[in-house]
Specification:
This protein has one domain: HAD superfamily/HAD-like (Rossmann fold, 3-Layer(aba) Sandwich). By secondary structure, the chain is of the alpha/beta class. The chain has a 5-stranded parallel β-sheet, sandwiched between helices. Strands 2-3 form a two-stranded antiparallel sheet. The protein contains 13 helices and 7 strands. Helix 3 crosses helix 12. The structure holds magnesium ion. The site of magnesium ion (MG) has 7 residues, from loops.
Length: 308
């Protein structure tokens, strides 16, 4: 009985649809104009919705592999050891050969140079958040960053040799206590008010670097961002940064030690032309448009043959 009842309901619907579809429709010019306007508006709405749909969640998809590389790749880990092993050789060479009486110093950045914040990045991916100073402040307060492989050992080796370690970081003062706790917990040397130089007024690190250089000879600068070495690299285009890097190539590995960071940095801003306020869709488009592409002439032919 129940099946028969359902069948009759379906048949009734089919009859109504048939009547509607086969009814003569009177079309006049006015109605046609209204319909066209409606269609245009509907298309605009669809476009707006699809723009809105490209959310931070989608943009965060681009962050997944970069974050995963730092967390899951033993190659990343090996590069870090390689970097600090190399730094030790450079320092040993200086200790053996340089007779200057001026005290030695090493200037290191913190984030993604000696401590790893990828758990924060993964948190953004997990919650569909973009970066914000509020979540970042909470992360700093929790002091859960882990050490970059080889960093604690190298900086303690330097400290044991009488080299002063200065942490020149653009973490703001709101994160001071958490940063002190985090670095001390991990066993880094010289974590005190004199050596931990957070951002007070400007992100330009030149002033803090100059303050260290007044009384010290800086043997090495270490960072994941070229701005950790000189503000000359700041706020430049991709091409300008390339040219500057090429012009300073002899300093890399001898004075400037670079750690890899695929997750964020000045390099990302270059793709956005410095427009960090762009929408997730715009950021994605700008990143993709900045890619150097192979213009394969066979692509069209292959597509056509695949369709047959
Ligand atoms: Mg950094």
């Amino acid at each position: 009985m129940k099946k028969l009842k359902n069948l009759s309901i379906v048949l009734a619907f089919m009859m109504v649809f048939t009547v509607v579809l086969t009814s003569p429709i009177t079309v006049n010019a006015e109605v046609a104009t209204v319909s066209a306007e409606k269609i245009v508006k509907a298309e605009e709405i669809v476009n707006e919705v699809s723009k809105e749909e490209f959310t931070t969640k989608k943009l965060n998809e681009q962050l997944v592999m970069a974050t995963a590389w730092m967390q899951a790749s033993a190659e990343y880990r090996a590069i870090c050891y390689q970097t600090f092993n190399w730094s030790k050789m450079v320092l040993d060479n200086d200790l053996a050969k340089n007779t200057s009486k001026m005290p030695r110093a090493i200037i290191v950045d913190a984030d993604e140079t000696i401590i790893d914040n990828t758990a924060y990045q993964a948190h953004l991916i997990d919650r569909d958040y973009g970066y914000s100073s509020k979540t970042w402040a909470a992360w700093m307060q929790d002091a859960e960053a882990i050490a970059i492989p080889g960093a604690v050992e190298f900086l303690n080796y330097a400290a044991d040799k009488g080299v002063e370690v200065f942490y020149v970081t653009n973490r703001k003062m709101v994160g001071y206590e958490g940063t002190v706790k985090n670095l001390k917990d991990l066993g880094f040397p010289h974590v005190d008010k004199e050596h931990l130089m957070l951002r007070v007024d400007t992100s330009n690190k030149d002033v803090r670097r100059e303050a260290v250089k007044k009384d010290h000879r800086v043997v090495l600068y270490m960072g994941d961002n070229l701005n950790d070495f000189s503000s000359d690299f700041a706020k430049k285009s991709i091409e300008e940064r390339f040219t500057l890097t090429d012009n300073n190539k002899d300093k890399f590995g001898t004075q400037y030690i670079v750690l890899p960071n695929p997750t964020y940095g000045e390099w990302v801003g270059t793709m956005y032309n410095g427009n960090w306020g762009a929408s997730p869709q715009e950021k994605s488009d700008m990143a993709k448009n900045s890619l150097r592409k192979w213009n394969n002439p066979r692509e069209f032919v292959e597509q056509k043959s695949a369709e047959k």
